[in-house]
Write a structure and sequence with these properties.
Number of helices of chain A: 6
Oligomer: heterodimer
Number of helices of chain B: 10
Helix content of chain B: 40-55%
Order of helices and strands of chain A: EEEEEHEHEHEHEEEEHEH
Helix content of chain A: 25-40%
CATH class of chain A: Alpha Beta
Strand order of the largest sheet of chain A: 11-10-9-12-8-1-6-7-13
Largest interface: A-B, 16 and 22 residues
Number of strands of chain B: 9
Strand content of chain B: 5-15%
Number of strands of chain A: 13
Distance between the termini of chain A: 55 Å
Shape of chain B: globular
Order of helices and strands of chain B: HHHHHEEEEEEEHEEHHHH
Radius of gyration of chain A: 21 Å
Structural class of chain A: alpha/beta
Low-confidence stretches of chain A: none
CATH topology of chain A: Rossmann fold
Shape of chain A: globular
Distance between the termini of chain B: 36 Å
Structural class of chain B: alpha+beta
Number of domains of chain A: 1
Low-confidence stretches of chain B: none
Mean pLDDT of chain B: 96
CATH superfamily of chain A: HUPs
Largest sheet of chain B: 4 strands, antiparallel
Chain lengths: 245, 406
Amino acid sequence: MKILVCITHVPDTTSKITFTNDNTELDKGGLQFVIGPYDDYALARAVEIKEQLGGTVTALNVGQQETEPTIRKALAIGADDAIRIDAEPTDAYFVAQQIAEVAKAENYDLIMMGRESSDYNGGQVHGMVGEMLGIPSLSPVMKLDIDKGVAKMAREIEGGKEYLEASLPLVLGCQEPIAEWKIPNMRGIMGARKKPLKVITPTNNDTLTTPESYELPAPRTDVKLIDADNTAELVSLLKNEAKVI
Amino acid sequence: MTQTLTEAEIKKSTKQDLFESPDFYGIDDLLTEEHILIRNSVRDFVKKEISPIIEDCAERNIFPEYLVPEFGKLGLLGPTVSTDYNPNGGLDYISYGLMMQEIERGDSGMRSTVSVQGSLVMFPIYTFGSEEQKKKYLPKLASGEYLGCFGLTEPNHGSNPSGMESRLEDKGDHYVLNGAKMWITNSPKADIAVVWAKNDEGRILGVIVERGMEGFSAPTIHDKWSLRASVTGELVFNDVKIPKENVLPGVSGLKGPLNCLDSARYGISWGAIGVAMDCYDTARRYALERKQFGKPIAGFQLIQKKLAEMLTEITKAQLISWRLGVLKNEGKATTAQISLAKRNNIEIAMNTAREARQILGGMGITQEYSIMRHMMNLESVVTYEGTHDIHLLILGHEITGIQAFR
C-alpha cells in the first residue's frame, strides 16, 4: 500500500485571526501553526493502514520553509518520508496541480487529505486532484478500511451516511471519526529528523483566484434573557433587532 | 483512602482545556524544533488524558493507574536514559524539563508519579546499576509495565537523611534489610523500590527491593489534602532477604540518593513553572471575561498589577530553568544551583496560585478551576525533595562555606 497524505500548515484552531495589507492578507505574526485538523485525521488513518497492511506513507505539503516543523510532526507521527513543494499555496487550483504532478510519477494507491483546510476552507483540492489524475475522488470520508485492493468507506451525506466501496487508486477527503488524532511519542519525534524530507520546486505557477479582501465575522454579542411570559418583547427583538422575522 | 479505579469509573469533564503558555521573552527561540514538538505533544497528551479526569481523581482521591503505561507509550518515563534500555530515551535535560512543565501544568501528582519513576528509580539503576540490573528493570520501567518508588525518607529522618536507621546486614551470600521509609510516592502500587540503607560499616547502599519479597509491605498513607491523584505510602522491611545482585554496585554513601534528588529537583523546577503558567492563564482569561462596574475586571489596575507580576515571575523562572537545563546538559549544574531553581520556582508558583485565586473571587475556590487543586498540591512540592528552608540553607552554605542546617 503506497499512500500519499497531503497536509496543510494552518493557524492553530484557537488562534485570534487578524489581517494586514488592507485586509487582503492573513497576519501571521504571533500565530502558532499546526497540521490542518482534518488532514491530521487522514494522516492518522493512513499510518494505521500502513501498520495493518504494510507499505509506505509519504507526507506532502505545499509551502515555504516555515512549514517544515509541521512536516516533521507528520514524520514523527509515522510518515516514512516527506515532500515539500517550495511555494506559497496560493489557491486550490495551484495546490492541486502541484500534488497531481508529484502523484503522476509515483502511482499512489491512496491520496488522502482533509475534507478541507481549516484556514480558507475551500474543500476543493481533493476533487481537483482526482480530476487531474483521472481517478475517483470522494469526500467527506469518515470511515475507511482496505480489503484486497477495495476501499470500504462511509461518507457523510445530508441527513445520514452513505456506505460505499471503490477500487484503488482513490483520492479521499477525510474527516473524523476516520481515526483518532495521534500524538507523536518521543521515539517518533527524535527519529523524524533522520527521515527524508525532499524539497522540490513547483512545476506550474497558475493561480486562478486572487482574494480581494477578508473580513471577520461579527463578534459574538451578549445573550439576552427574556422572561418566558414576555413573548411580546421576544417577538419585538427578533423583528426589530435581529431582523430574522 | 487512595482508590485505583478503571478509566470507565472516573468521571470525565467535558470542559475544554484551552491552556496556552506565556512566552514573553521568546524562550521558544532558545529551544530546538524537537524541544517544541516534545513540549506540544506532552501538552496535547495532558489536555486529552489528564485534564478531563483530574478534578474527579483529586476530589475522590483516585490514582489513575491505567495512565502509567500511557506515560510509557508517549515516552515520559526515564527520557534521559539511553536508547539501549528505553526506545523513547536519549533525550536531553531541556526535553525532560519541558515534559515536567507540561505534566505538572496538568497536575503535580501526575508529575510526581512520572518524575519518581524517571529520576528516582530509573536514574539510579541506569547510573549506579549493573548491566544485569539495567537490562532486567529499565525496559519495563520505561514502558510503564513496572511502577517504581524511591525509599530515602524515614519517619524520624526527613531533612537529615544521613541519620537513617534502615539497616542492611551482611549474611554472606545475601543481605537482610530492616527499617521503614515514609512519604513514598507510588509505594503502595510499586513493583520495585530503590531503597537506601546503611550496611554494617555505616555506609549507605542502594538496593532494589521487589514487590512480594517476604517481610516487605507498602501500606498507603490515607487522607492527604495534597497530591490526591497520586498514591503515597510507607515501605516496611521486616527481615527482608535481599540477594546480593540487587545491590546497586556503582555507588556508596549519601551522594547516591543526593544525585538522584538533583535530577528530580531539576525537573520539579520546571514543573512549578507549569503550575504557575496554568494559574496565570486561568486568571488572565477569567479577568477578561468577568465584568464588574460595567467593564472586564482585567481593566482595573489592581488586577493588572497581579497579572503583570505573575508574568514577570514566570518569565524569570523560565530563564532560570532554561539556563539550568543547559548546565545540566553540559554536566555542570551544581546542587546549589538546582536548589536555587527549585526553591524560587515553587515559591513563585505558590504566589501565582494565590493571586490567581483572588482574581477569580469565589469561583477560584471551586473545582470548576484548577487553582485550588494546584495550591494544595504545591504544599507537598514545597516540602518534598528538600524543603523550602533546607534549599535556602544549601544556598547559605554555598555562599558562606558554613553549614547552618545542623
